[in-house]
Design goal:
InterPro entries: Na/Ala_symport (IPR001463)
Subcellular location: Cell membrane
Number of strands: 4
Organism: Nesterenkonia rhizosphaerae
Keywords: Cell membrane, Membrane, Symport, Transmembrane, Transmembrane helix, Transport
Shape: globular
Strand order of the largest sheet: 1-2
Family: Belongs to the alanine or glycine:cation symporter (AGCS) (TC 2.A.25) family.
Strand content: under 5%
Number of helices: 22
């Protein structure tokens, strides 16, 4: 028998109606977003390439059978590594020297020092890609996806080296405010200048749209969705069940609004404020997460051999993965690119603000990002997950299919009961810092398309905040698929520009190594000419000259 008063029954009915209304709203948004995702994914990844191996391999053997844009990212990264003679490894010591300011001068042009530029960019890469992204990779491709993530990270170091060197070389510094404007929007017009103004405008416009989309979806919705899933898991662990306010649609909406409100307090600043905030947050959250991973790894040191064995074996002989080995490679490369953003063109925007007279110096620093992000931290995350779930792998993956980040949270709870609460705090900080960094990247693309004004900037920031809220209401699968598509569209366009301008970067690199050896790094470097200095001579001019 229900003893609730008539007013209580009415209130309950109204609450039920309100909840169902929010549920209906969330379902409608999720369905609409899913339809848009399907179209966009097919548009970007729909072009497939098959490369047969030929003799002496079996007739059906292929070197590649997958998306063109993913293949392009892989080939470019390997090609850069060969062309620059593995500079990401040869220049590792140099990168550490530059980060600690060994070759810096107080009057170097720019806004932030090398360390601040690195942390600002790392805040956009070291984040939920290392937690939710790795979990998504191993849930889709098994432990073997980790191997291909590591390999993609090592090659991606060289891609980062190239794009961030160009970001500094072609930056523009406002003579009045001192504000720096750099990144792909400055060097892509140089790379494609021979095509003419209209093609350049179209190419850079499409690139700006893709950066903006990834900033809103991958840098906003993905972070909010994963942060919310992490907090949900932590709350469920504390109370012992999933019947909590945060597990309702109203809870999703409230969390999204609060999270968006906190982000709004920060994104009103520019790169200087981001540098200060991330400079404080990134080391703290990186230490918390890395130390936590190390504790688990050390505690399970006896299982390190079998874990790496599972990674290697799974990389070349996957079971139950669509596409076999090629499928696992694609998964690993996609998740590595999502995590470290090598080639996307985002990092050069942050790195271009660095104080330096030598563009290539920041290229060395930027090469550290994929190493820190993918090779070290992603591998640690994968090991923790494998340690926890290897005996019951399929069951664990199925249980967390809706939100793969639960694999990581559950893995830590296997070793430290209730640790998911601490991890949830770290995840929240990762998501928060990534969001404020990507809001900066996104607004640069927005300004390229619509110009810079207070009203225009406010419109973009409101859009970001709205999609943060929506990110807490829609499914993880739709978000990551859309974000991947926007990310690889960026890579496809940006890397073409990097290939064209690679000779300029090589000259900068060779000059730097020569000056370092000769002890001239504190001197002003000699200017190196690039395509922007070449004068195009028409046929008529050649004929006129010949007739003189």
């Amino acid at each position: 028998m229900n003893n609730m008063s008539p007013l209580g029954l009415l209130a309950a009915a109204e609450a039920e109606e309100e909840v169902s209304g929010i549920q209906q709203f969330a379902d409608t948004i999720d369905e609409a977003f899913g339809e848009a995702t399907g179209f966009f994914v097919n548009l970007i990844f729909g072009t497939q390439v098959t490369i047969p191996l030929g003799n002496p391999f079996p007739e059906d053997s292929v070197l590649w059978d997958g998306s063109l844009v993913v293949l392009w990212a892989i080939v470019a990264a390997i090609g850069f590594t060969i062309y620059f003679k593995a500079v990401q490894f040869r220049g590792f010591k140099v990168a550490l020297e530059v980060v600690r300011g060994k070759w810096s001068r107080k009057d170097d042009p720019g806004e932030v020092n090398h360390f601040q530029a690195l942390t600002a960019a790392v805040s956009g890469t070291v984040g939920l890609g290392n937690i939710a992204g790795v979990a998504a990779a191993v849930s889709l491709g098994g432990p073997g996806a980790t191997f291909w993530m590591i390999l993609a990270g090592l090659f991606g170091m060289c891609t980062k080296f190239v794009e961030c060197t160009l970001g500094v070389r072609y930056r523009e510094i406002d003579p009045v405010t001192g504000e720096v404007h750099g990144g792909p929007f400055k060097y892509l017009p140089v790379a494609f200048r021979r095509l003419g103004r209209i093609p350049v405008a179209i190419i850079t416009g499409v690139f700006a749209i893709s950066v903006m989309l990834f900033g809103i979806i991958g840098g906003g919705m993905f972070q909010a969705n994963s942060a919310f899933s992490g907090v949900q898991d932590a709350v469920a662990t504390v109370v012992g069940n999933e019947d909590t306010f945060l597990h309702s649609e109203v809870g999703s909406l409230v969390f999204g609004i609060i999270f968006a409100g906190l982000v709004a307090l920060v994104i009103i600043g520019g790169i200087k404020s981001i540098g200060r905030v991330t400079g404080a947050l990134v080391p703290a959250m990186a230490i918390v997460y890395v130390v936590s991973c190390l504790i688990v790894i050390i505690a399970n040191i006896g299982n390190i051999g079998p874990a790496f064995s599972a990674i290697i074996v799974g990389a070349f002989s996957p079971e139950g993965v669509a596409g076999g080995v090629i499928g696992v490679i694609i998964i690993g490369v996609q998740r590595a690119a999502f995590s470290n953003e090598a080639g996307i063109g985002s990092a050069p925007i942050a790195h271009s603000a660095v104080k330096t007279r030598r563009p290539v110096s920041e290229g060395f620093v930027a090469a550290l990002e994929p190493f820190i992000d993918t090779v070290v931290i992603c591998t640690m995350t994968a090991l923790v997950i494998i340690f926890a779930w290897e005996p019951t792998w399929n069951e664990a993956v199925e249980a967390h299919s809706a939100a793969p980040i639960g694999l990581t949270f559950g893995a830590f709870d296997e070793f430290f009961s209730g640790f998911s609460v601490i991890l949830a705090i770290a995840v929240f900080l990762f998501a928060f810092s990534t969001l404020i960094t990507w809001s900066y990247y996104g607004i640069q693309a927005w300004r390229h398309l619509f110009g810079q004004s207070q009203t225009s900037d406010t419109i973009f920031r409101v859009i970001v905040l709205v999609f943060i809220v929506i990110g807490c209401l829609v499914s993880f699968g739709n978000i990551i698929d859309f974000a991947d598509s926007a990310l690889f569209l960026c890579i496809f366009i940006n890397v073409i520009g990097l290939v064209v301008l690679a000779p300029v970067v090589k000259k900068e690199m060779e000059q730097y190594f020569a000056d370092r050896k000769a002890g001239r790094l504190m001197d002003d470097p000699e200017y190196i000419e690039g395509p922007e200095d070449m004068v195009t001579v028409s046929k008529s001019q050649v004929q006129d000259t010949a007739g003189v």
